[in-house]
Amino acid sequence: MHEISRFYGLIIFMYPKDHLPPHLHAKYGEYWAEMSILTGEIIVGKLPKRAVRLVEDWIELHKDELLENWNESTKENPNFKKIELLN
Asked: 13 and 78 in contact (C-beta within 8 Å)?
């Protein structure tokens, strides 16, 4: 697991060589979810509505960087880049 951002109590991370579709993992307290980078929708898991909106907004702002990290995740020794938090 590689943490790529942290804001408003949310921790965003990715795993190397993870399954398709391109997604990220979000943790908020005892909640967690996998969310699509392309659509912002929850693939599996559950987050409070406010946390979902924050992650959706953040994905929209950083989609290109997230897709770069996703492409990096397919490499043998990925070098994930930290992504700016949501202000």
From this structure: no
Distance, CA of 14 to CA of 71 (rounded, Å): 11
Question: What is the phi/psi pair of residue 76, to 5°?
Answer: -60, -45
Q: Which amino acid is at 5?
A: S
User: Would you give the distance in Å from CA 6 to the centre of its chain?
Assistant: 10
Q: How far, rounded to the nearest angstrom, does the alpha carbon of residue 12 sit from its chain's CA centroid?
A: 5
In single-letter form, the type of residue at position 75 comes to: K
Number of CB atoms found within 10 A of residue 30's CB: 5
pLDDT tens track for 23-70:
999 999 999 999 999 999 999 999 999 999 999 999 999 999 999 999
| 2-7: strand order across its sheet | 2-7, 10-14, 23-28, 31-36, 42-46
Q: Which residue has the tokens 């408003």?
A: 8
